[in-house]
Amino acid sequence: MKITHLESSAEFIILKQTHSLVVLDFYSEDCPPCEKLAPIYEQMAKAFPEIMFIKAFRQGHRALAESLGVSGSPTVLFFKDGELLDYYLSGYIEEQDFKTILETISGKSGLSDLTADNKKIEQYDLCIIGNGPAGLAAAVYAARYKIDQLLIGDLPGGLMTSSHKICNFPSEIEISGTDLTQKMLNKVVALEVPQKFARVNLIKQIGEFYELTLSSGEMVRAKKILLATGTKHRHLNLPNDQALVGRGVSYCATCDAMFYANKIVAVIGGSDSANTAALYLAKVAKQVYQIYRNDSLRGEVAWIDQIKADDKITVLYSTKVTEIIGEKQVTGLKIDKPYNGLTDLSVDGIFVEVGSEPDQTLINQLSLEIDEGHYIKTQANQMTSRASVWAAGDITTGSDGFRQIITAGAEGAIAIASIFKQLQAKK
Ligand code: NAP
Predict the structure, then answer these.
(1) Which of 291, 336, 354, 411 to mutate to test the pocket of ligand 1 (most atoms within 8 A of CB)?
(2) Which residue's alpha carbon is nearest to atom 1 within ligand 1?
(3) Distance, CA 330 to ligand 1 centroid (Å)?
(4) Which CATH number belongs to the domain containing residue 275 in this structure?
(5) Domain check: are 330 and 291 in the same one?
(6) 401 vs 69 pLDDT, higher one
(7) Going along 30-159, which residue ranges are E strands?
(8) What is the number of the ligand 1 atom nearest to the C-alpha of 168?
(9) Same domain (yes/no): 105, 134
(10) 167 has catalytic annotation
(11) Is 416 helix (H, G, I), strand (E, B) or coil?
């Protein structure tokens, strides 16, 4: 089934009445999780042709979004016989969660449809897993060394795309994360690097090859692996933190800031991501509380100076959030240190920016050696503890733990030089 792009609320009412099962995705501009969801949404529409899949540009359907209680992008809603179901997905949506809901509401399995025409196994000398700055830089170097490579990733640019303004990349005065990603992707495309926009779900060694199973159902094999999958957002681990994602809790200021025009928001965290999110939100929100567990902000001093000069931002130091208040929508939060005599703060939105950590799935499957923070231990040439597996970027212990776009790119380049030497030695 092809996806319908919604033109009006009236069209939605008709589609809802004329189709038993309807899925509706609200997406926004400058929204990395929306880009991550897009190919998954297409796959699901293909696997479940009996369901009507609709996409609605949130900014163009503001009233409809509000009437359905949507306050985050992307948000996916499910309807049966015209009624809104309780199932609900928002933020960085995982393919498996989406598929499970579709299988439940439709009563059929979509998995076989996804894998049916993907049985051929392609082989490469090198698979780069992850298409953030480390993977993209590595792909450029590998192309210049003429390595037989495949670049696989589900979100070009990775977490870099969440930055509304990058001011420390040497070639740019200032640039957004999405624009810098586009420039890096342009270079990879110009070099004709083979790419697959998917997630690697499973990796195992078979003889001299590593065999990868992708979220698209495809399988590929490679002699050498470069893991550049970066990190994923750390959660607050409060009881309703995850349940309220898209209903007042957000992990992406560039995606969701516009939902909070002239409203009151809180940003949690005190390093670069929280600092840049607070500054970005202060442009549209009425007031921003930045809640930080320590007594002085850290990260780039230039951002900290801007926060101190911004009248809309109030930093609550040495303060922890103990509870998020709200059942269907965030209405406030509780803090452990009174502010103006109160430990309840009324806010419309909460932006969680408490750092990130490596996803352990592939690390565990490969039994790689990690440090106490769960980052992959790498040597100076980016080799891991396992033969024929290298790692680069935020996922490693490299670059003295200084996780930046430029250091991720550098690690990708160093890894390729080492991989090239090994491939040459075997010829
Ligand atoms: P980060 O540097 O690891 O900082 C995480 C922040 O969250 C810290 O302030 C930390 O507090 C706080 N935190 C961690 N766990 C918490 C919890 N459970 N509850 C409350 N607060 C918690 O992460 P990041 O800010 O995402 O930055 C990651 C990397 O990207 C860094 O290398 C950063 O420099 C880079 N980055 C750079 C820019 C830029 O414009 N240059 C922008 C974004 C990110 P403590 O301070 O007490 O540890």
Answers:
(1) 354
(2) 355
(3) 23
(4) 3.50.50.60
(5) yes
(6) 401
(7) 52-57, 75-80, 83-90, 121-129, 149-152
(8) 41
(9) no
(10) no
(11) helix
197 domain-assigned: yes
> In angstroms, what CA-CA distances link 233 with 143, 180, 236, 252, 356?
31, 20, 10, 10, 4
Residue 240's pLDDT is: 87
Q: Specify the pLDDT at position 110.
A: 62
Task: Supply the pTM of this predicted model.
Answer: 0.86
User: In degrees, to the nearest 5, what angle opens at C-alpha 318 toward C-alphas 316 and 321?
Assistant: 70
Residue-level pLDDT at 116: 44
Q: How confident is the model at residue 58 (pLDDT cuts 50, 70, 90)?
A: confident
Q: Which atom of ligand 1 is nearest to the CA of 320?
A: 20
- Number of domains into which the chain is organized: 3
**Residue owning the nearest CA to atom 34 of ligand 1:** 272
**Which atom of ligand 1 is the closest one to the Cα of 292?**
21
Task: Determine, yes or no, domain membership for 239.
Answer: no
Q: Which domain-ending residue is among 81, 114, 147?
A: 114
CA of residue 298 to ligand 1 center, whole Å = 8
310: annotated active-site residue:
no
90-101 pLDDT, tens digit each: 998 988 899 999
Place of tokens 């499970």: 100
> Across the strands, what pairs with 80?
21, 83
Alpha-carbon distance 276 to 313, whole Å?
A: 12
- Does the structure show a pLDDT above 50 at 340? yes
Residues lining ligand 1, judged by CB closer than 6 Å?
163, 166, 168, 234, 268-274, 276, 293-294, 298-300, 354-356, 403-404
Q: pLDDT digit string (tens) for 121-138?
A: 999 999 999 999 999 999
Q: Residues 178-188: pLDDT tens digits?
A: 999 999 999 99
The rounded Å distance from CA 244 to ligand 1 centre is 22
Ligand 1: distance of its center to the CA of 146 in Å?
A: 37
Q: Is 34 a catalytic residue?
A: no
pLDDT of residue 6: 93
Q: Give mean pLDDT, residues 225-250.
A: 92
pLDDT score of 80 more than 90: yes
Residues 164 and 27 in one domain: no
Specify the residue with its C-alpha closest to ligand 1, atom 37: 272
Beta bridge partners of 352: 268
Other beta carbons within 10 angstroms of residue 37's beta carbon come to: 27
